[in-house]
Design brief:
The chain is of the alpha+beta class. The protein contains twelve helices and nine strands. Strands 1, 2, 3, 4, 5, 6, 7, 8 and 9 form a nine-stranded antiparallel sheet that branches. The two termini are 21 Å apart.
């Protein structure tokens, strides 16, 4: 793991610990880390193992144990002191994480051994700085693999027509069906234009039913745009991208994303940029003999700038 990446992520974790009682937003954490706001959540989750919001809640829950066992403050007061929006949210999160309610923990605080087990739950992960030494040893081999499979490309800006899908990424074929019919009516084919998918949300941080996906097709230079109720138009930004050629079942695409952000990107000379990833669709999985999708996956990147931190 790149040492600069490690320092930046540890700085974010320390910031969470120092400010867990306050309202913390993803944009705020991304800005503090100097990671791309668009991709921060995916990077954090890949490295730490849980989403930023989940980590914030874990720190808050750990802090709440101290109040429950060492003070007589009400559970409502504790929920507010630890940064939860409501006592209901606090109770639900606490029960899910510790398999006990705050009231049950308070009632059993005379049993020191019981409390010790609760307090120690995930404490090492929460309060021990991330150690990347072992990760570096393992990633030396992985980096050579990535170097053989990831290439740096410059893409132009593309004018596209698109259909937006909101829901599970496993159902994006619905948007492609609509776009494909529209493209066929306008004599736009895969032989002449690119068909590009854009996953706008990270399923780890956004409810599956709310994930946004744009099924896009590039347009001929002389194309006359006519906005409809279904098809819209926009420009995809050009620039520097890391290209990874993916060929597998569609459900494995999420693993490819995670590997790129967890393994290749931290060990490269680049940071992710504030542009969406582009999935150039190179085949129709329905017509593939193995039912696999062939995708040219482009990750937006920029040269990493090493910054001094006080």
């Amino acid at each position: 793991m790149n040492n600069e990446y490690g320092k930046r992520m540890n700085a974010v974790i320390q910031y969470i610990k120092d400010n867990s009682s306050e309202r913390i937003t993803l944009d705020e954490l991304a800005e503090h880390s100097n990671f791309s706001k668009f991709h921060f959540s995916r990077i954090f989750t890949s490295i730490v193992g849980v989403t930023p919001i989940a980590y914030v809640n874990q720190v808050r829950l750990h802090n709440s144990i101290q109040y429950l066992t060492n003070s007589d403050r009400t559970i409502l007061d504790i929920s507010q002191l630890c940064g939860f929006e409501s006592v209901t949210t606090f109770n639900t999160a606490f029960k899910k994480f510790y398999n006990q309610t705050p009231s049950e923990v308070r009632a059993s605080r005379s049993n020191d051994s019981n409390i010790s087990l609760i307090v120690s739950k995930n404490e090492k992960e929460l309060f021990h700085p991330l150690n990347y030494d072992e990760h570096r040893k393992i990633s030396h081999f992985l980096r050579r693999i990535w170097d053989m499979n990831v290439t740096i490309k410059e893409l132009p800006a593309y004018e596209v027509a698109y259909v937006r899908h909101i829901g599970s990424y496993l159902d994006t074929h619905l948007a492609w069906s609509v776009l494909g019919k529209w493209a066929n009516e306008h004599q736009i084919t895969p032989m002449s234009q690119y068909f590009i998918g854009i996953s706008l949300d990270d399923p780890a941080t956004v409810e599956e039913s709310e994930c946004r996906y744009d099924a896009c097709v590039t347009l001929p230079e002389d194309f006359v745009k006519k906005i409809t109720d279904v098809v819209q138009f926009k420009t995809l930004s050009g620039g520097t991208y890391a290209l990874y050629n993916f060929y597998d079942t569609v459900d494995k695409l999420a693993i490819a994303y995670q590997s790129l952000f967890d393994q290749w990107l931290p060990n490269s000379e680049y940071d992710s940029d504030d542009r969406p990833c582009l999935e150039f669709c190179m085949n129709d999985p329905a017509n593939d003999k193995e039912r696999k999708c062939k995708v040219e996956l482009y990750i937006p990147i920029k040269k990493r700038i090493l910054a001094e931190r006080g």
